Amino acid sequence: MVKYFLYLLLFIQKHNSLNTIIGTYECKVDAKGRLLLPAPLKKQLTASLQEGFVLKRSVFDVCLELWPMAEWNLMMQKINKLNRFNKKNNDFIRKFMAGVKIIEIDDLGRLLVPKDLVAFGHINKDVVLSSKVNIVEVWDKELYEQSIASDAEDFADLAEEVMGNFNDDTNGIS
Asked: What is the DSSP string of 90-148?
């Protein structure tokens, strides 16, 4: 299974023009909804600190997504190409943008998670920050553990289905 992760990481690094965020970190949210970024994650996000971030609901999971502004702007370029006179496109845009907040990280490395997003993500005291290539997922720890608790064989089948069609002869990985 480690082999699949290494192949995926190499593929992403080769095809991703922006920095890849690496790691899974456990931390805590205080009573005011402030989250202190772990030092290794903050270091990876240093280039993005000046531009700020967008925090939003995840499309597929009960978690939040922290987007560096540069990544968010790339996504907005894609979304702006959608024809808004197509009802499905319009509905998608509305739901994708629901709860979106611009977030800044203070000098101490903290970000404030707005109450509506705390409620959506069922965020309690213990939180997991997990890289999702170029963004960071913000999970309630218990929900995160449930989401990754699949059978190893299930993951192997998923990896084969998702990555099994890639064959990049330039680096010997297929």
From this structure: HHHHHHHHTT-EEE---TTSEEEPPHHHHHHTT--SEEEEEEETTEEEEEEHHHHHHHH
